[in-house]
Amino acid sequence: MSQVPWRRSVKQHPDEAIGSLVIRLAPEGLLTPGEFLKYHFGRDERRPPTDIASDREALEDLAVIGSFNVEWLYQATWKTLGTVTEFLGRRLPQGWFKPEVRRLAPGILCADSDDPWVRNEWQIRALPCDCDTGEMIIERCAKCREGLTWIRTQNVYSCAICGYDQRAAKARYAPADVLARSRDLRAYLRGDTADLPAELASLEDYEFLSLICWLTYFVALPDCVLVRPSPHEAVTGFRLAKQWPNSFDKTVDELLTRYGGNPDVVDHFWRVQVFEEALVALGRVGSQAAQRILEARLISRLRLPAGFNESKLGFIEPVARFDSRCQRFKWASPSEIDAMRSSHDRTRLRPPSSSE
Fold first, then answer.
1. Rounded to the nearest 10 degrees, how much is the dihedral formed by the CA atoms of 128, 131, 133, 139?
2. CA R_g for the chain
3. Is residue 334's pLDDT more than 70?
4. CB under 8 Å to 318, separation ≥6 — which residues?
5. In the chain, which residue ranges form alpha helices assigned H by DSSP?
6. Model confidence pLDDT, tens digit, residues 6-19
7. Preceding peptide of 245 cis, ω within 30°
8. 90-120 per-position pLDDT tens digit
9. For residues 224-247, average pLDDT
């Protein structure tokens, strides 16, 4: 589509989200963001303005209309393939990026004065705060508690439901340890893997990111705390990944202590029991490559024979997809198996009746 630049535009920022640019630019053409999408890009006006971020041709048109740097627009694109989303140069697992969700830092938007804009990194849901200032990022309106979305909003800072200006909300700041872990995770997302164990650094980015969400869930199992693997636990999981394999081994040892005071002298039978329980948990990792690393380490820590996991294959395994709880197959006891076999033999050896 050929476009003519508008006589007046808005200032583009290098790290600005595309939805933010569309919303800020639309009033300069006397249009709502929905009308802008409809008349200039042929899109459904009920869709979020981030919808054009996955269309390279639409981004080129946007660059012409607003006199924007198209390379900066390309850097902010996203593309979803199956459960993986490519965003800011990384392949993110499911749930890490939601194009319809608008994440804001009220204090920073207020400091932007007359030119508030939304940063790209805020849209990564695993980062709980702005990594430069430490301000906590919000996903829900500070007044009505409804989710903040890009849909039906006329500016970047107001709630689409109640109209509350989020810049008026009190800014909250992350504790020092959370900010430090968030910065570590951001460094990884920007390409720095120097502090990671080589075994984990070799994983694809979406596999590693799935693993760190899972680690937080796993280390909570000995305390019977059910933490669902999610991007909101990623900063804690990243710290655990940097401590690999000690963080994993410590959890396995804690599971073993339930069957004996000293994990080094626990009977082989109970080691197999812990293996079976841990194997169910491993089914929630979401990455086969990461699961293989975890299984190998589990067998090593439990001092089980090599290839032990293959011998258990088909007997202890997860049931379908996991959601809020774990399940495993429960096989019949030997006495029940003998009773079933006896019944089967009697049926098989019974002479045919005259009616047959």
1. -30
2. 27
3. no
4. 280, 283, 284, 326, 327, 328
5. 18-25, 33-41, 56-66, 70-75, 106-111, 176-189, 198-201, 205-219, 234-242, 246-256, 268-282, 288-301, 308-312, 334-349
6. 656 789 999 999 99
7. yes
8. 999 999 999 899 999 999 999 998 889 999 9
9. 89
Lateral strand order in the sheet of 84-87: 78-81, 84-87, 90-92
Q: Are 311 and 259 a contacting pair, CB within 8 Å?
A: no
Say which residues have a Cβ less than 8 Å from residue 336's Cβ, sequence separation at least 6: none
Other Cβ atoms within 10 Å of 18 Cβ, number = 27
- Determine what percent of the chain is predicted with pLDDT higher than 70: 82
Question: Nearest-5° angle of CA 62, CA 63, CA 68?
Answer: 130
Gap between the Cα atoms of 284 and 328, Å rounded:
13
Using the predicted structure, report yes or no on whether residue 265 has a pLDDT greater than 80.
no
Structure-block tokens of residue 82: 């199956």
Buried b (16+ CB within 10 A) or exposed e, 140-172: ebbeeeeebbbbebeebbbbbbeebbbbebebe
Cα separation of 253 and 262, whole Å?
A: 9
Joined tokens for residue 317:
């395994």
Residue linked to tokens 């808005």: 10
Mean pLDDT value across the chain = 84
Q: Sorting pLDDT into bands at 50, 70 and 90, what band is 283?
A: confident
State the DSSP string of 225-256: ------GGGHHHHHHHHHTTTHHHHHHHHHHH
CA–CA gap between residue 9 and residue 16 (Å, rounded): 15
Q: Taking a C-beta distance cutoff of 8 angstroms, is the pair 17, 25 a contact? A: no
Q: Check residue 18 and give its pLDDT.
A: 93
pLDDT of residue 55: 87
CA 239, CA 212: separation in Å to the nearest integer? 8
User: Of the candidates 211, 218, 256, 267, which has an alpha carbon nearest to the alpha carbon of residue 234?
Assistant: 211
Q: Two tokens at 300?
A: 């090593």
Q: How far apart are CA 194 and CA 38, in angstroms?
A: 46
Both tokens assigned to 132: 């430069």
* pLDDT computed for residue 269 by the predictor: 80
